[in-house]
Design goal:
It is a single chain. The protein is of the alpha+beta class. It contains seven helices and five strands. The protein has a three-stranded antiparallel β-sheet, sandwiched between helices. Strands 3-4 form a two-stranded antiparallel sheet.
């Protein structure tokens, strides 16, 4: 489970209580959460939601840096690479499958039964960021989060290589400063 201290940091990072947060999947060198692991099923009584984001980038520094890559056409650029690099397509498909399997493994038999009962088991067949089309790229934040947490995501690895750094400069550790002026990400839940 996410510790109370980590929960407070993540809440400050994203500006609200995290939904379905289970654990910290990756930390920066300063010890703050960068990626959190989220449970795939959120239930409140009869209401439920399947959460496609298994690894959620919470670090405000990385969120802002990845938003810059996205706003510069990063998603389209990676889709173009998938169209011409068969090896990348194979590694990308493997990353999606690994993500899908890990997300499904977090469900208890009772939760799987519940999803079957309400006709929503198929929603667990999607990959990173809820994608079912393996030729598409969506939300580079999700790809970087998966790469940082588990490795094995070629898009996330490439995004990481594009960034100036994978953590804040020591003179401005955002999580130690109270997380002021953090740009919002368009694709974080």
């Amino acid at each position: 489970m996410l510790s109370p201290a980590d929960r407070r940091v993540v809440e400050r990072q994203i500006g609200r209580p995290p939904t379905g947060a289970v654990a910290v999947a990756h930390r920066c060198p300063y010890g703050y959460p960068q990626v959190i692991l989220t449970h795939p099923l959120h239930r409140q009584g009869a209401e439920f939601g399947v959460f496609p984001t298994l690894f959620w980038l919470s670090c405000p520094y990385l969120t802002a840096e990845v938003a810059r890559v996205e706003s510069g056409g990063g998603v389209r650029r990676y889709e173009d690479l998938l169209a011409v690099q068969p090896d990348l397509v194979c590694r990308y498909a493997e990353a999606h499958e690994s993500y899908r399997r890990e997300r499904a493994a977090l469900l208890s038999p009772e939760e799987r039964g519940f999803l079957g009962k309400v006709g929503a088991l198929d929603r667990l067949q999607t990959g990173i960021a809820g994608l079912s089309n393996r030729q598409r790229v969506k939300c580079l934040h999700a790809h970087l989060a998966h790469f940082l947490a588990r490795g094995g995501n070629p898009i996330g690895e490439s995004v990481a290589a594009e960034l100036p750094a994978l953590f804040c400069p020591p003179q401005r550790i955002m999580c130690a400063e109270g997380l002021t002026d953090i740009p919002a990400s368009s694709c974080l839940p």
